[in-house]
């Protein structure tokens, strides 16, 4: 397999604090399992870069990143410096779209040692995956304002779902469900209210489902689905959703497992025509930045998902992934823990503890 | 004030089971406080009607309902008979839009006697209002499919926000927050991802806010906002949201207070140019229909909100509203309770218990 070339983009805020811990644990795991990584450290795709250059990234960003096998990403956004929609559409959302990372894969899992905000739920009760469409849908760049500044003013933004874009994410989700023990898939929708695009999305799901007779699937409207994440989180196995609904569900799911400080995500280009991107679900969190109190586990887990994807879910990369996961699990159980989990450890103490266990 | 004329639309499924309990409690309250209601019982706006007539309502539905002072509504929808988007756009969503019921007001409140799915939350900890825009936004009727049946197929649905529509719901929410003790308002947004319409919505909020210097307000992205409903529900006071985000939050909020079987809603035309509509948040629930196990409290509370709106939040109508609320509270504390609250009472037993207490 040779050497993997990894673009390392810390970004803004706590992104710059959790990234060193991700690398620390990667170093430990690659040393142990004999995997060779080469890092390309990137200081753009940050609001500081924007303040100096008037754009989030250099013009040749795509060429630079295309040379890499994967991107390890911290978090972008610092609204006091740059409005969020400019910083995000100028970096992360551009990567997702231009590198065709059409799957955003995010787990919701309740670990031992992590108190759930839900009453009476214990480790093992919550364990499901959210498969989010990641390139189109509600996150469109089509629309605009008319009659600006008058009483008649309105703004239009289009949601655009392609057959190809919908089918491929649905297939990915059905495939994943098929590989799991429960073989259950929930399709998030809102076809009772969003009456043009969502019934069409339901049809796509119904068509794709015919190829998976062994998968038990149903569709649930996003409103009641969110309610059920709280009321019956044990019922879910794999949940597939459009871009916006997946965004919502993949913050809510992890919240139900105690903290969004644990949740990793994989922005996958399954066809491997461009690098995939791995990042924590939490953002740059300016309010707690600079204090070394951020939980680095989401970042570390994201790094593990990266190894697993690079190794095609097998080989020594899979072993390294599993070893990191096991180290995360035992650290959650035994400590040290950051403040969001009721502990008082610093970001790097948790990173070191996990690296040692690996 | 004379006599209020009320259109009574049970609709489908458990709508037909909870409606009699709403009327039972209304009868008790109006008798006690000397309020005169005249009911117009309506058997259309149901899927059974659709099966017979090929449409959800007679052609003169608008004239018929416009003669009424308010609409008391059960629930519509029975997907095995009629697809949801047809039954809903043929009734409820038509009312909201054509009667310009631009506010959908929904409480999230944790009562004594109701176990919360959230760990360690007790009565009083959760008590906030969701103000949902109810006529435009993501629930548009503009869009369509192109290249159907080919590889190039896509569907477009537009979200359309007008200045007038956005300003009036934001004003309503700021007004409501201003009247409350905490004077706090949270504006739901997603301006980091939905980069055309949502930054525009944020601007409207920022403008309106200048007229309310005493209201503490902030904006929160819908993904993290949903997470915070679970993690910190005690922090909210009034939450204002677009049509879709309000839909999601007003199922999630009540779920955090134990059951969506309690949550009422008021679809208000505050200008009173057309009747307003009052309905439970829960839907027709075909899975439990016909068993007399549905919780009637959301329906009964909706009826109370109707009285309060009819009386302009004062007079004997306000007293009747308060008496119903008190009867709901003591019934939740002392029983009887339906299955969703861990009891085994039938729908009508709960209705009778509340009526007696009134
Ligand atoms: C039935 C459906 C169309 C409706 C909505 O989405 O508005 C419902 O969920 C509600 O919240 O009143
Ligand atoms: C930062 C934001 C644009 C992003 C999104 O909405 O996709 C984030 O919430 C996420 O989930 O990765």
Automatic annotation (TrEMBL), chains A, B:
Catalytic reaction annotation: (R)-malate + NAD(+) = pyruvate + CO2 + NADH
Sections of the chain in a coiled coil: none
Names of required cofactors: Mg(2+); Mn(2+)
Alphabetized GO MF terms: D-malate dehydrogenase (decarboxylating) (NAD+) activity; magnesium ion binding; NAD binding
Enzyme type, top EC level: oxidoreductase
InterPro entries: ICDH/IPMDH (IPR050501), IsoCit/isopropylmalate_DH_CS (IPR019818), IsoPropMal-DH-like_dom (IPR024084), TTC_DH (IPR011829)
Keywords: Manganese, Metal-binding, NAD, Oxidoreductase
Assigned EC number: 1.1.1.83
Record's protein name: D-malate dehydrogenase (decarboxylating)
């Amino acid at each position: 397999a040779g050497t993997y070339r990894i673009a390392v983009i810390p970004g803004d805020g706590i992104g710059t604090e959790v990234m060193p811990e991700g690398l620390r644990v990667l170093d430990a795991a690659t040393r142990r399992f004999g995997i060779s990584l080469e890092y390309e450290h990137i200081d753009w795709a940050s609001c500081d870069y924007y303040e100096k250059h008037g754009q989030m990234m250099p013009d040749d960003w795509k060429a630079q990143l295309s040379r890499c096998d994967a991107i390890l990403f911290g978090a972008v956004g610092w609204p006091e410096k740059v409005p969020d929609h400019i910083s995000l559409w100028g970096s992360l959302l551009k990567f997702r779209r231009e590198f065709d990372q059409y799957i955003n894969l995010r787990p919701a899992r309740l670990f031992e040692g992590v108190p759930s905000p839900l009453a009476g739920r214990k480790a093992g009760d919550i364990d499901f995956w959210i498969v989010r469409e990641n390139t189109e849908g509600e996150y469109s760049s089509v629309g605009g304002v008319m009659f600006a500044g008058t009483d008649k003013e309105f703004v239009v933004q289009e949601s655009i779902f392609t057959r190809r874009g919908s089918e491929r994410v649905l297939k990915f989700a059905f495939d994943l469900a098929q590989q799991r023990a429960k073989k259950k898939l929930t399709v998030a929708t809102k076809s009772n209210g969003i009456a043009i695009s969502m019934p069409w999305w339901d049809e796509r799901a119904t068509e794709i489902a015919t190829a998976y007779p062994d998968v038990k699937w149903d569709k649930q409207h996003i409103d009641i689905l969110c309610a059920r994440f709280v009321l019956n989180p044990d019922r879910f196995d794999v949940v597939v959703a459009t871009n916006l609904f997946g965004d919502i569900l993949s913050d809510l799911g992890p919240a139900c497992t105690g903290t969004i400080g644990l949740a990793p995500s994989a922005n996958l280009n399954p066809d491997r025509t461009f690098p995939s991107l791995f990042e924590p679900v939490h953002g740059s969190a300016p309010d707690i930045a600079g204090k070394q109190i951020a939980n680095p586990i989401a970042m570390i887990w994201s790094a593990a998902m990266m190894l697993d994807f690079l190794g095609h879910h097998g080989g020594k990369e899979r072993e390294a992934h599993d070893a990191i996961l096991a180290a995360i699990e035992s650290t959650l159980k035994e400590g040290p823990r950051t403040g969001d989990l009721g502990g008082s450890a610093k970001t790097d103490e948790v990173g070191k503890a996990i690296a040692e266990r690996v």
